[in-house]
Amino acid sequence: MGGRAVPPEEPLLSTFEEGFGYITSAAVGRSLNEYQLVCKLGWAANSSVWLALDHSADTRTFVALKILTLQASATIVGGHSPERDVFRKIESANPNSPGFNHCLALKRFFIANSAAGGHICFVTEPLSSSVANFRVPGQDGSPSHCEAHHRTGSSRSGLPSS
Fold it and tell me: For residue 54, how many other CB atoms are within 10 A of its CB?
């Protein structure tokens, strides 16, 4: 296949100075605030994403919990990342717009503290698939149900903006 091998887990021992700073205390069964981590859904350069049980809800409710690295958290705090702004644009978008129901909405966010510092955590609904899975092979461009993201000037999951 070529290329370099991708490690099966995020580099937990890589530091903030190396551009990472993952939260090392995140593990199945542990809790961050009122959210009990059930399983890891995935990870990328700036975060890990977990399925979590929301203990503050009246009924059994699962959420997706995106835990940013120290580096990504510092970038947002410093005003150099649009991620929080993307969620704000979605919150203010027209709910009647085509594709709006397919946009990821932020339920809340909080800071989870670790020995190394504070990690921004985004709480959203758990979704079933990446936007990239909706792309039609051989076609250039984004699927029609991504229009709401593009209209707000944002794009997620590595899809190019039109």
Answer: 18
Q: Does domain 31-128+143-151 have CATH number 3.60.150.10?
A: no
- Domain residues of the chain, as ranges? 31-128+143-151
Query: Is pTM beyond 0.70 here?
Result: yes
Tens digit of pLDDT for each residue in 94-126?
Answer: 989 888 888 888 999 999 998 888 999 999 999
Phi, psi (degrees; rounded to nearest 5) at 138:
85, -5
Residue in this structure with the two tokens 């296949």, named with its chain if needed: 1
Distance CA 21, CA 114 (A): 10
Q: What is the largest CA-CA distance in the chain?
A: 50
